[in-house]
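Hypothesis: this fold can be encoded by more than one sequence.
Test: take the C-alpha cells below, design a sequence, compare later.
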C-alpha cells in the first residue's frame, strides 16, 4: 500500500514531466514559425534555407532525330527470262559471280531458229537479185528512150525541110506525107519509151519494198536468235541461278515461267525507310542520315536522303524515303536490316537546360529557379529534346539559376540556398 508521502512524490513527478513536455512543444512551435516567417529582402538566413543544386542555361546546337528501321536493297535488280524457247546448252555463271554489262550468262540451243534465219537470208538475197534486175531494165528503157528522142528530133528536122521544099513545089506531096508519117512514128516511140520507164521504176519500187520486207524478216529472226543468248544487263552480282544445262526453257510470254537468273547491282544500295506521318513535313531530300546495320553496331555509314515519295501510304500512314549509299567494298548486302537516324530539325544556338530540371503538371511544363533566395516556379515552353538536354523556347533568361537537384523538395516561395551543381557552367 502506497503511503501519503509516496502519493505526494508521484503527483509532483507527473507535474514536472508535463511541464517539460509543454516546454518542448512550445520550442518546436517557435522553431517552425521561425522557418516560415518572411525573410527580409537582403537575403535568407542560411540556417533556415534548404540547399539546392543549380545550373545556368547553356547555348548550344540542338537537333531532333528520327530513329527508324530500314531495309537495304540493291540499287538495280533484274530477273532475267528467256524470250525464246529452247534447251540450255551452256551456263557460264553461278551465284556470287560478279559480271559486267553484256557478259554471256547462258546460251540456249534453238536449231529450228537457225534454219529459219538461213531461209530468211536466202529469201533476202533473192529479193535483192530481182531488185538489181529491175533496176537494170530501167537503165535499158532509159537508153531506148534517149535513142527514140534522137530519132524524133531527126524526123522533126526532116519534116520541116520537106515542108519548105513542098511550099516551093520542089518535091511532091507524097514525100512530105511520108516525112510526116515517120515523125508521128518517132513521137509514138518516145511515148512508149516513157511508159516503159515509168513501169520499170514502179517495178523497182516494188522490188525495193520486197527487199526491205525480207531484210526485216532476217533481222527479226536474228534478234529472236540473239535472245537465245542470255546477257547481263548491267554490272552486278548473280544472286540467283535457277537453270542448269539440258533444261527446257519456255519463252517468258508462255503461261507461268521462272527467271533464269537474278542480277543485282550492289556497288550502290538503296536504303528504304518509312517516315511516320508526324515527321513527314521535316524530312527532305538532302537530309543527313546515319545508317547502322543490325549486327554491326560498331560500324555506321553516313549518307543523305536521296528522294522521298511526297505521298503517304493510306494503309500505314507513312511516307517512303530512300537513301543512296555507296558500297564499293561490298560490305553491305541487299536484304539486310539497319537502323537509320535522320536529323529532322535543328537549332544552332538553342537555350538549353538539363532534362532533369523539368517538371510537369497537367499541360504545364516548368522549372524552379532561384530569385532573391527563394524558389520561384517558372513556366517555360520547350522545343527540341535530345534526351539529356531540352531546348527552352520561352520563359527563361540566359542568366537564370535553374534548380536541378532538390527540385522535388521545394515549392514556390520556399527559402533556398543555391549551390552550383558539379560539372555545371554556372551557379
Amino acid at each position: 500500500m502506497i503511503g501519503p508521502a509516496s502519493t505526494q512524490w508521484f503527483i509532483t513527478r507527473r507535474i514536472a514531466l508535463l511541464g517539460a513536455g509543454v516546454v518542448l512543444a512550445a520550442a518546436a512551435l517557435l522553431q517552425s514559425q521561425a522557418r516560415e516567417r518572411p525573410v527580409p529582402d537582403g537575403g535568407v538566413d542560411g540556417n533556415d534555407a534548404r540547399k539546392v543544386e543549380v545550373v545556368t542555361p547553356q547555348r548550344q546546337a540542338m537537333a531532333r532525330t528520327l530513329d527508324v528501321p530500314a531495309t537495304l536493297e540493291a540499287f538495280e535488280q533484274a530477273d532475267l527470262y528467256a524470250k525464246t524457247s529452247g534447251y540450255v546448252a551452256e551456263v557460264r555463271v553461278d551465284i556470287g559471280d560478279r559480271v559486267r554489262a553484256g557478259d554471256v550468262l547462258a546460251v540456249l540451243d534453238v536449231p529450228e531458229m537457225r534454219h529459219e534465219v538461213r531461209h530468211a537470208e536466202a529469201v533476202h538475197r533473192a529479193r535483192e537479185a530481182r531488185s538489181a534486175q529491175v533496176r537494170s531494165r530501167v537503165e535499158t528503157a532509159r537508153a531506148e528512150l534517149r535513142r527514140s528522142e534522137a530519132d524524133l528530133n531527126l524526123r522533126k528536122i526532116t519534116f520541116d525541110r520537106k515542108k519548105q521544099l513542098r511550099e516551093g513545089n520542089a518535091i511532091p506531096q507524097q514525100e512530105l506525107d511520108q516525112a510526116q508519117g515517120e515523125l508521128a512514128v518517132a513521137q509514138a516511140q518516145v511515148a512508149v519509151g516513157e511508159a516503159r520507164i515509168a513501169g520499170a521504176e514502179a517495178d523497182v519500187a516494188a522490188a525495193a519494198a520486197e527487199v526491205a520486207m525480207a531484210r526485216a524478216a532476217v533481222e527479226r529472226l536474228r534478234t529472236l536468235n540473239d535472245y537465245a543468248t542470255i546477257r547481263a544487263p548491267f554490272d552486278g552480282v548473280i544472286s540467283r541461278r535457277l537453270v542448269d544445262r539440258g533444261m527446257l526453257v519456255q519463252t517468258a510470254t508462255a503461261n507461268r515461267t521462272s527467271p533464269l537468273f537474278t542480277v543485282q547491282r550492289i556497288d550502290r544500295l538503296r536504303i528504304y525507310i518509312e517516315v511516320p506521318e508526324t515527321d513527314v513535313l521535316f524530312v527532305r531530300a538532302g537530309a543527313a542520315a546515319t545508317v547502322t546495320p543490325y549486327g554491326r553496331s560498331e560500324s555506321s555509314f553516313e549518307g543523305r536522303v536521296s528522294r522521298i515519295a511526297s505521298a503517304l501510304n493510306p494503309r500505314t500512314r507513312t511516307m517512303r524515303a530512300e537513301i543512296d549509299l555507296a558500297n564499293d567494298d561490298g560490305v553491305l548486302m541487299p536484304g539486310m536490316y539497319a537502323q537509320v537516324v535522320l536529323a529532322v530539325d535543328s537549332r544552332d544556338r538553342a537555350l538549353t537546360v538539363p532534362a532533369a530540371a523539368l517538371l510537369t503538371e497537367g499541360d504545364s511544363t516548368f522549372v524552379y529557379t532561384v530569385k532573391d533566395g527563394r524558389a520561384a516556379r517558372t513556366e517555360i515552353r520547350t522545343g527540341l529534346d535530345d534526351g539529356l538536354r531540352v531546348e527552352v523556347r520561352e520563359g527563361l533568361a540566359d542568366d537564370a539559376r535553374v534548380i536541378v537537384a532538390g527540385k522535388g523538395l521545394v515549392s514556390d516561395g520556399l527559402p533556398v540556398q543555391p549551390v552550383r551543381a558539379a560539372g555545371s557552367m554556372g551557379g
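The longest strand covers residues 58-80. The helical segments are 4-36, 111-167, 173-226.
Hypothesis status: open.
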